[in-house]
Amino acid sequence: MTIEQSEVEKIAELARIRISDNQVGEVTARITEILAMVDQLQEADTTSIEPMANPLGATQRLRADEVTEVNHREAFQSIAPAVENGLYLVPKVIE
Amino acid sequence: MQWETVIGLEVHLQLATQSKIFSGSATTFGAAANTQASAVDLAMPGMLPVLNEKAVRYGVLFGLGIGAEIGKRSVFDRKNYFYPDSPKGYQISQFSDPIVGTGSFDVQMEDGSTRTIGITRAHLEEDAGKSLHEDFHGQSGIDLNRAGTPLLEIVTEPDIRCAEEAVAYLKELHSLVTYLGISDGNMAEGSMRCDVNISLRPMGSDTLGTRAEIKNVNSFRFVEKAIRHEFNRQSDILNDGGTVVQETRLYDADRDETRSMRSKEVANDYRYFPEPDLLPVVIDDSYIEALREQLPELPRQKRQRFASEYQLSAYDAAILSSTREMADYYESVATTCGDPKVAANWVQVELLGRLNRAELDLEASPVSPEALSGLIKRILDNSISGKIAKTVFEAMWQGEGSADDIIEAKGLKQVSDSGELESMVDDIISTNTAQVEQYLAADDAKRKKLLGFFVGQIMKASKGQANPQMVNKILAQKLK
C-alpha cells in the first residue's frame, strides 16, 4: 500500500497539523514505510481469531447515574486565556 | 415532471439522566454558564470517560420499545472534527456497533391510516457545548454545560414521503420516548433535535436522488416548513435541468428558507476509529429481559385499547393517548364517571380547549380528573343539561368548588318535575297562539323546525334549567 503526497496534505489539514512544503515529501515516505509494515501484518491468517479490544478480555464497567462533580469554574477559568461572564472566549467561529 | 420526495430523519434525543454520559457533572437545563462542566467535559489532560449505566439502559429501553435488535456488544468510536464547543477535538459516538440495530415503527396518520417507518439504528453519543456569537469583542463565547449530555441518535430509513409523514413520525416518536420516560421531550429546551435528509426523484423511480441535509430543526412546525421549502428549491433546480448539490443546509425560521452552510463544514471526513478509552459494552440477556418486563403500556397499545375498550374513534384514541399524563387523566375520568364517550368529549373539547386558552399544561389543570368526573355524573343523571354543565365547569375552573357544590349554590339543578314543566309548557302555548296555529297547520317536516321555537322559549323562561328531553316530550303531547 502506498500513500500519495496529496493524501498526506489532506490528512494533515483535517488533523490541523502544519507540515511545511520541504517536509511533506519525507513525511509521505515515512508513512509509506509504516504502511508497508501494516501490509506485512495483513499477511497473517486471522480467520479463526476473534477481534480483541483488550488483552484481559475485560468489558466496559458502568457507573451509577449520580451527580458527583461540583462547580470548579473559577479554578478552571483561572488558566483560560480569555473568559467573560463565565464563558470561555475563542476566536470567532462563524462569519 | 412529477417529483417524489424521499426523506430520512435523524433525531438527537437528550436522555433524561441526572448526570452526563461520561462524567458525574449535572445535566440540569439553564444553569449558569460552565458551572456544570467538569475536567472530563473540558477535556483536561489525562481525564478518562466513565460510562453512565442509565444512558445504556435508556438506549436499550428505546430498542425494546420499537422491537429492534439490541446491540449486545456495542462499541464507542471517535468522530474527529474541530469546533470549540467540543474541546476534545472529537465526539465520542457509536459507529460500527450501535446499542440499537434495525427496527421499525408504526406511525398513525391523521386520516387513521398507518405507515411503517424503518429504523436503521440508534446509537449513544455525547452532546456538544454551546457557542454564542453575540458581541464578545469579535470573539465567540463557549458554554460547556451541555457538553457530555447523553444523546440517543435515532436514524430512519429513507421511508418518509412527505412533510405530514415526517411530522407524524416525530409526534409518535415524542410520544414513545416520553411514555418510556427516557427523555423529557422538551422541544423548546432542545431535548429533541432533528436533521432532515431530503432528495427528489421522478415519480415511479426507485433510485435515490442527491440529497441535502438540513441541520438542527427544532420544532414539528419547522420540520414541516423546511421540507416544503426544500422540495420547492430542489424541484425548481431539477425542472430547470440543473443538479442538486449534496450539502448541509440550515433552516432559517425567520425567513422560512434553507441556506447552504459554509463549505468548510461540509467537508465531512470524520475518520472514525474505536475509542481507546472505552471498552466494548456487553449486555447480557438477563439485563435485557429485566428491562423488557418494566416496559409500560406503549402509545400504540394504549391507543388500540382505548379504541376497543372505550369505543373511541381512531382520532379520539390517538389524541387521548398522545402523552402518558393525558392517557392517565382521561382513563381516570372515563372509569369513574361511567361513560367513556362523554368523558372523551369533555376532556378533548372543554378541558383541552380551556387549557389552551389559558396556555396551561394538563399537569397544571385546576380541574382534577375526580372533579371532572363528578361534573359528568351530574349530566348523566340528568341533574343538569350539557349547556349548564359548561357554566359549572367554568366555575370549577375558577376554584368555586365541586360540581355538586356549584350546582347547589347557584341553584342550577335541572327541572325534571313533570308538573312544573307542564305548567311552563302551558304558559308558552297560551302566550304564543300565532305560532301554535302555524304549527298545527304545518306538515311533519316543518313541525320539527317549529317545535324548536317552543323549546327555545321554555329553555329561556327556565334559564336553561328545564330538562330538554322532557320538554320535547310534553310539547309533542300538548300540541297534537
In N-to-C order, the SSE pattern of chain A is HHEHEE
Helical/strand content category of chain A: mainly alpha
Can you summarize the main beta sheet of chain A? 2 strands, antiparallel
Strand content of chain B: 15-25%
- Main structural class of chain B: alpha+beta
Number of separate strands of chain A: 3
Mean pLDDT of chain B: 91
Describe the model.
The complex is a heterodimer of chains A (95) and B (480). Chain A is mostly helical. Chain A has a domain at 5-42. Chain A has three helices and three strands, in the order ααβαββ. Chain A has helices at 5-14, 21-42, 73-77; strands at 62-63, 83-84, 87-91. In chain A, strand 2 and strand 3 form a beta hairpin. The mean pLDDT of chain A is 91. Chain B has 480 residues and is of the alpha+beta class. Chain B has helices spanning 53-65, 163-180, 220-239, 263-266, 285-294, 299-309, 314-320, 324-337, 340-358, 369-380, 386-397, 403-410, 418-431, 433-441, 444-461, 468-478; strands at 3-14, 51-52, 73-74, 77-80, 90-93, 103-108, 114-126, 130-136, 139-143, 150-156, 192-202, 212-217, 247-252, 257-260, 273-274, 281-282. Chain B has an eight-stranded mixed β-sheet with strand order 6-7-10-1-11-12-13-14. In chain B, strands 5-4-15 form a three-stranded antiparallel β-sheet, with no helix packed on it. In chain B, strand 8 and strand 9 form a beta hairpin. In chain B, helix 13 packs across helix 16 (468-478). Chain B starts with a strand and ends with a helix. At the A-B interface, strand 1, helix 3 and strand 3 of A face strand 2, helix 1, strand 8, strand 9 and strand 16 of B. Strand 1 (62-63) of chain A pairs parallel with strand 2 of chain B, so a sheet runs across the interface.
